[in-house]
Amino acid sequence: MWSAKVIKNKIEHENALASLMALMVKEPTKGTEEADQLELLSVLIDQYESKNFPVDLPDAIDAIKFRMQQQQLKKQDLVEYIGSASKVSEVLNRKRPLSIAMIRRLHKGLGIPASVLIGKSDAEIPDDSGVQYTKFPLKEMFENHYFPEFKGSLAELKECAEELVKPFMNSVTASASPLILCRSSAHQRSGKPMNTMALTAWQVRILQRAQQKPLCTVYKQKTVDLSFMQQLVRFSWSDTGPLLAQEYLAKHGIYLLIEPHLQKTYLDGAALLNHDGAPVIGMTLRHDKLDNFWFTLMHELAHVALHLNEKNPCFFDDLDPNSQVDDMENEADAMAYEALLPKDTWVSSNAYNTHAKSDVLNLAKELSIHPAIVAGRIRYEHKNYKSYRDFMGQNLVRKLFH
To answer: DSSP assignment of 152-220, as one string?
Structure first.
């Protein structure tokens, strides 16, 4: 007689079936030892067969059509679950896949099992977290290659928003959800309210890129100080200065990544804390000029030196003159200005007094920095952003990173 144990292979399964047949022939009385043995054998055989001989799930579309027949539903009755008459036709004709939103509504409204709608026996419908995925800037995200695996059209983006954005959001390792970070822990500087959803997407994109290509050097705390920043500024003299700065930072375990801004973020740069504690500097080059590049870079490095930590893991900066500033922003500005052009040197220079282009060039040469930095200081202090346009290095930065 077969002894009760978990069935692990084909031979044990055959032996269990033989024992089951022998007991069934005896027709044991309920409550006897043989009856209990028969019940246990049935359970163990069922477990083995369920695992090794799974029954194919019904096709999702066939299941929907069957439920329509059961409840005498017409195509227009599915609009509330699928979205529109055209979408209903496309789904029923297998020309449009079911989205998570559709699956959730069909499961709740028509009682079709999630496993059938998803096509996996152990599948569960993701919880509705309340995040409005369609509020993300899907078109911009698509055009900027946030969803490289998506091959659909722009028209299908909104319907697939949850399927696209949720995995994208989960693609980065973080101590907390980026959406939570943007809402509760982010430090934002801007003259206008920043679009949180767009800002979150941009943040995830920057961290995603950093984590996809880790740096070879581990960042050491307190690496960034005024001397470090002033050393970096000297690369500005070169035509490839921004690239040299990126390489220099990488060798010290600091990421510098260029990623286009998303509309209504008004973003110039950001200082972010990676999951491993390394600083990540993101820049948008919204204003593609050399003076903007170097000031933004120094401003974000000042945040790294002074403020970036687990308590303050992200700083987002719109550096336009009308942006609202607080103590931390004032501190970052001051350190950036000192790194670019030390105050004592600046106020004692001929360029400070004359504003002559020749003096601007001479001071830049003396300090081994790009003239755009000196001219930019004059433009800022006198609020005259139309002067020295030929010194600004317009459209010279973005092309270096392509």
So the answer is: S-HHHHTTTHHHHHHHHHTTS--SS-HHHIIIIIEEEE-SS---HHHHHHHHHHHHHHHHHS--SSPP-
In terms of Cα–Cα distance, which of 216, 200, 205 is closest to 278?
Answer: 216
Listed in order, strand segments (DSSP E) in 248-366 are 255-258, 269-273, 279-283, 314-317
Q: What angle do CA 256, 262, 265 make, to 5 degrees?
A: 90
Q: Which one-letter amino acid corresponds to residue 174?
A: A
Residues in the chain: 402
Tell me the backbone φ, ψ of residue 203, rounded to 5 degrees. -60, -45
Cα angle 130-134-137, degrees, rounded to a multiple of 5:
125
CB 54 within 8 A of CB 115: no
Q: Taken in order 35, 36, 42, 45, is the CA torsion positive or negative? A: negative
- Predicted confidence (pLDDT) per residue in 218-265, tens digit: 999 999 999 999 999 999 999 999 999 999 999 999 999 999 999 999
Q: Is 266 exposed, middle or buried (CB count within 10 Å of its CB: 0-12, 13-18, 19+)?
A: buried
C-beta of residue 317 within 8 angstroms of C-beta of residue 333? no
Local structure of 140: helix, strand or coil: helix
Q: How far apart are CA 105 and CA 78, in angstroms?
A: 10
Euclidean distance between CA atoms 222 and 334, whole angstroms = 18
Dist CA 236 CA 297 (whole Å): 11
Q: What share of the chain is helix, strand, coil (3-state, %, to 5)?
A: 55, 5, 40
Q: What is the pLDDT of residues 170-190, one digit of tens each?
A: 888 765 555 554 554 579 999
